[in-house]
Amino acid sequence: MKMIADDLKLLKGMEEDDNSSFKAIYDKYSKALFLYAHNVIKDRAVCEDIIQEIFISLWAKRKTNKITSLKPYLFQAVKFKIFNHFRDNKFSREDLTRLNIIDVSMNVSQKLEYSELDQIIRDHVAKLPKRCRHIFVLSRYHHKTNKEIAEELEISVQAVKNQISKALAFLRNNLQLEEAIAIALILLN
């Protein structure tokens, strides 16, 4: 909770044009966001551009943003930018392999909107067993580490890993081929 309170304080400072608050947010999250993007897009320059765009937007909208939880907001912004990158650029065979998408014959140029993909994923996640779903949501939507989840739920890190693996296997097996691009969004580490 302290982390969320600290973030809200920084957001408030940024809203009041405090450059040091913005720099503190950047210093706190930029490296993790870059690594998150780089796990999918193995192009350093593209990842740097994505992170830069997110922080430029964060600053530009500082007076109108109604962010209540900064970390999930920033990671969701990265997911959105990654999706846009893949939507706007043709997938290479290497990209498809890296994302564990087996059927490369699907039409990746479909004009699916991010919100539609997100809803498809959420619908499938809702079908997971309760405990598995809870752990998956903490991991992928709240961007908590396995250790943080284990401590919060008072279970072992291995139990967390097992539940996440179970969730990912379920999602891989239940997503239809035309939804396979959604895997790119949920498999981000």
UniProtKB/TrEMBL annotation:
Name of protein: RNA polymerase sigma-70 factor
Biological-process GO terms, alphabetical: DNA-templated transcription initiation
PANTHER family: RNA POLYMERASE ECF-TYPE SIGMA FACTO, RNA POLYMERASE SIGMA-70 FACTOR ECF SUBFAMILY
Taxonomic placement: Bacteria, Pseudomonadati, Bacteroidota, Flavobacteriia, Flavobacteriales
A GO molecular-function descriptor: DNA binding
Pfam families per record: Sigma70_r2, Sigma70_r4_2
UniProt entry keywords in alphabetical sequence: Sigma factor, Transcription, Transcription regulation
Family: Belongs to the sigma-70 factor family. ECF subfamily.
InterPro entries: RNA_pol_sigma-70-like, RNA_pol_sigma-70_dom, RNA_pol_sigma70_bacteroid, RNA_pol_sigma70_r2, RNA_pol_sigma70_r4_t2, RNA_pol_sigma_r2, RNA_pol_sigma_r3/r4-like, WH-like_DNA-bd_sf
Residues of the RNA polymerase sigma-70 region domain: 25-90
Superkingdom assignment: Bacteria
Domain RNA polymerase sigma factor 70 region 4 type: start-end pairs: 120-171
